[in-house]
Batch of 2 targets.
Target 1
Amino acid sequence: MIGIFGGTFDPIHYGHLRSALEVKHIFGLTEVRLIPSYQPPHRDKPHGSVGNRLHMLRLAIEGQNGFKIDTREIDRQGVSFMVDTLASLRQEFPSQSLLLFIGGDAFNKLTTWHQWQRLFDLSHVVVMTRPGSPIGQLDDYLVAKQVSDRQELSQNLVGKLYFQPITQLAISATAIRTMFAEQFSPRFLLPDAVIAYIRQHKLYETL
Ligand code: ATP
């Protein structure tokens, strides 16, 4: 099974890294693909350039077994729709289960994503929830996809929705960018090597 973790990673932080590591272990994934978006739908252009965001990802995952950076959204350019990314992964890995991981915040907006129902024709969707916090009312289409047995993800290639509680660190890239702009140290929220890179290249000096 291959895990897919998309994001802007502007910058990558321990909230992303810790959850990617936990799901890799919980689901016994052969790899987790971190996929930086080129132009995320529904949001402004990222602050960090593609080159800087990629470089920070490389620094952050150095030495971590099973984490891979996948540049297909950057290579494709244009608006980074997840459905296109999954279609291309499905072609590359026709016989593997794909698990698309999304945070609870992103899941709440899933039904606004481009061709969102098609996501389930291409992969499973695993929502990383905060332990103890309930999920809101689900769309009927989603109710029909939901499974409560993790085994169903390995037994099927696509089409299931699963909720997985994980440790959630209250860290956001937005808050980190603000700290840099206000010259308040973000240490211990993201890897030191990434902090050093941001300082060296004077990223996020203004909001
Ligand atoms: P921003 O503050 O710029 O919106 P972000 O920190 O939310 O950024 P993204 O790159 O937009 O990061 O998020 C990518 C994915 O990581 C999404 O699925 C999101 O739900 C998840 N995510 C973000 N922050 C955390 C966190 N602290 N813990 C677990 N998952 C997270």
Note: The mean pLDDT is 95.
Target 2
Amino acid sequence: MEVLILPFLIMKNNCAIFPGSFDPITKGHVNIVKRALKIFDNIIIAIGANQTKEYMFSIQDRIKMINIVFKDNPRVIIKSYNGLTVQFCEKNNTRIIIRGIRNHFDVEYEKNIALANNTMNKNIETIYFDSSKEYQFLSSSIVKDVIRHKGSLENFLPNNIVNYINSI
Ligand code: ADP
């Protein structure tokens, strides 16, 4: 009996967090979440509400947009957080941080953050997903520029997010 219960308990904890600004969520982010769901049972999308950062979209809008994309997937949990990502991991009992890598700038940037996080909590590991080829160029910053200049968003954002942005 115990032998049967143990794998179940391990599976139950197979949860990772995907922290970020998601200002707004792009097809690049969605691609990372979908691929991470092949490995983890649950993904917590953790939206940073960093007071020193300037966002285009409010925390409510960013949550709403992610919710629109994943509303039919109970394995995706959406939360917002202030403070350090390691503290969020500790509160949510998760040890895995997922990040996406598009280019060598991302590698350098992410490596230092991952080392700092692991220094603060030795149990926390960061796992990187290489960006899919078609989204390697894509960032929320590019999207924000396109929004400011009223350009076409269809290639960058899921359709229902384009509709949401056009409605606010
Ligand atoms: P942050 O401000 O924390 O960098 P972002 O929302 O910009 O938040 O990014 C969150 C994560 O998603 C980061 O790991 C980033 O590298 C990754 N990411 C963003 N866009 C893409 C993309 N097009 N392909 C793969 N990963 C991406």
Note: The beta strands are 15-20, 42-48, 76-81, 96-101, 125-130.
